[in-house]
Amino acid sequence: MTTPQVAVPQVVTPPATTPKTSVPQAVTPIVPAQNVPVVKQATATPAAGEFRRYVMPFADFRLEGEYDRRSWSIYLTPEQAAAPAKFHFAYQNAVVVAPEASQLTILLNNRAIGQQQIGSPDNASAISFDIPRGLLQPGANLVTFEATQRHRTDCNMQSTYELWSDIDPSQTYLSFAEQDAQKPSNTDAIRAIGVDGAGKTEFNLVVPALAQPGTTKPLLRLAQGLSLLSGMPNETFSFSTDSLPPPGPGKMTVLVGTPAELQPLFSAPEAAQTAALATFVKDPRTGSTILLVSGPSWQAVSGAIDTIVSPTDRDPNVLRDMLVTQRWTAPDAPFFFGDTSLSFSQLGINTTEFSGRRFHTSFNVAVPSDFYANAYGEATIFLDAAYAKNVQPGSHIDVYVNGSIATTKPITATSGGIFRHLPIRVTMRHFKPGLNTVTLEAMLLTNEDQVCLPGTTSNTTPRFALFDTSEFHMPDFARVAQRPNLAALAGTGYPYNRGIVPAALFIDRADPDTLSATATLLGQMAVVAGHPIAVDLIASPSGVGNRDAIFVGSISQMPTTTLSQMNIATTSQASWRPVTAGQSAEPETAVTFAEWRSRIGGGALQRQISSFQDWMRRNFDISLSSLQFIPGAEQVFTPSNVNSFMIAQGTSVTGESTWTIVSAPSAKDLRAGAEAITSQLDWPKIAGHITVYSSKTGKVDTVPVSRFDFVMSQPWSFTNYRLIAANWLSTNILSYAFLLVILFVLIGVTTSGILAKIGRHE
């Protein structure tokens, strides 16, 4: 890949074709596998010269219940795929797990490479085994952990929730004995960066000219490109100016600057004196590999950055087929833009037979940022399944969406049965823009479990079968964007993912902490958007115009007009200070007011009204907010001193664009908060009008949207407008009832007028 007067960067060759990660469409009985090598305990102490690749992109990893299966992919260089390798992991299980009937199986690229009897309740056991030659391949490799667990003594449904096996991510890795495996492949090193023992990926950018004007924009573009190329779920970026950080697993050092700027730290090759250069070099002091991005001027450096990032560019108007998730959950989630059906085999679920009491499996789907069907829409699962003769009425099949119950289908027939495309309607109220997880859970009751004779817990006779010919059907739904909507920002990067014009970016100061927070946030937004987000730096809010904008910085440096537009109290610029260790929190006005209201409130009558409201919400999904003609105004929000980070979204002054504020009490809090909120665990929790995070408690809270504007994202069509009206009226019940009464009155008046003009008049 060449450009005029630009040296050939050695890191931007298009990646090898990613293999499909869907599992084979064959019956998989959940019983101990045959002819699978049973591994033995081994020490986790690395051998001399051993190279490790950690494989778990999670801080914690637990397999729960009677059956659990988790899959994701790791990216290997050609040198690593060709080298002899061993797989290592350490685990510990609940004491109630019966070892004689419980198995842990590890698969690589859908081939079982080892099976371990689950029997380590007292302390963690370290396991290792050889990987067959030729099984690993350059590029993506599918890793699967599958656990079948049975209870020692109990046969009831509650006992299935007591079964678990914890896998230690810091002791789960691939080891390569050959030194060539450590050598980075020029084409694959960024994609193969991997994770550390805590499931994190870190890019350390060393830029001596960090404070100079004109360097920030290309550096933020580089950060987004690195995020997209690696595709990892827990990525962070750090900036420094005067030293090279120590190397380590899941870390990459990136040197950026002209040869003269880099001279105190590293002697750039001669080629960088005359042309743009992007390549991997060795640090002579530590022997580690670093990515060098250099050139005779910053214009040339920007050209070298473009050659790295340009393979990730995509036209925002081109629809994506998949939301890339395979680095932490495989396969990738397919996008549903309307009336579409996919079989379970296409969603990564294979035919499975189950002999326990509680079976669960899940799959991922994605919906666009302008999804608007949370009040009336229903998806449908057409279930192909079978249950044995001993399964009793009272058993049921539950469907969850993003952890919330969506529907329940009871099993009423006796003597077994087979479901052929049994329709199970799934309410879409819990769907959100971006990634959604749908979980299918079968609760199976039998007379044998009620008696619970010895040996019942380890019975291997199948009770339930799920077939991969089952289908998930998504109907047509309303397509209209909403402003504000932080869930759409977290799901797909909206509205910045669709911008034809670069978004305005305001950064209060270009210090390392603020730039690190900005790069980490934009990197995560680029991953969910599927392409780098174009931004233009502005010095003041007056330079925004009618564009979408992002404001990043400490709360004291935020423009007061911007805070007011977001309905954030301007007094928080002086009052928002996190509570330090050993410091007692001062009572806040809102808390004190709530306490006094409870003291002098309506007493028993108030409690009865509150109880009635909870009953209406629980049984009929009716709240006071739905019983109003006009949505209430947004309340002014004051961040609590317990919180240390905030994201808020609202409309611009002109009302024609979206503004997003990312702020914290200090630049240090801003960086720590950005790293925490962009983690795999917390990023999906971003929603509503405002989202706040507390570093002290680790809790994420949201402020729901009270009033929003529609942003038309689709060409005009009667069908879409009808669906929009249906969802809006389903949300605003009182308005719907009022329109219904008006319609009846009009029908009555019209009918009366017609009857008055016909018939015999005397």
Could you describe the 3D structure shown?
20% of the residues lie in helices and 28% in strands. With 762 residues, the chain is α+β, with helices and mostly antiparallel strands. The chain folds into four domains: 51-182, Galactose-binding domain-like (Jelly Rolls), CATH 2.60.120.260; 196-312, 2-Layer Sandwich (Chitobiase, domain 2); 327-479, Galactose-binding domain-like (Jelly Rolls, Sandwich), CATH 2.60.120; 484-575 and 636-710, Chitobiase, domain 2 (2-Layer Sandwich). Helix 2 (216-230) packs across helix 7. The chain is globular and about 100 Å long. The termini are far apart.
Per-chain topology:
Blueprint: E1 28-29, E2 51-54, E3 61-64, E4 67-76, H1 78-82, E5 85-93, E6 103-108, E7 111-117, E8 125-130, E9 139-148, E10 164-167, E11 173-176, E12 201-206, H2 216-230, E13 235-240, E14 251-256, H3 259-262, E15 277-282, E16 289-294, H4 298-309, E17 322-323, E18 333-334, E19 340-343, E20 352-354, E21 358-367, E22 378-387, E23 396-401, E24 404-410, E25 417-427, E26 434-443, H5 447-451, E27 464-466, E28 471-474, E29 481-483, H6 486-492, E30 503-507, H7 512-529, E31 535-538, E32 549-554, H8 560-565, H9 572-575, H10 589-600, H11 604-620, E33 645-651, E34 658-664, H12 667-677, E35 690-693, E36 700-703, E37 709-711, H13 718-731, H14 733-757
Parallel strand pairs: 1-20, 12-13, 12-14, 14-16, 30-31, 30-32, 32-34
Antiparallel strand pairs: 2-11, 3-10, 4-9, 5-8, 5-10, 5-11, 6-7, 6-9, 15-16, 17-18, 19-28, 20-27, 21-26, 22-25, 22-27, 22-28, 23-24, 23-26, 29-37, 33-34, 33-35, 35-36
Helix pairs in contact: 2-4, 2-7, 6-7, 7-12
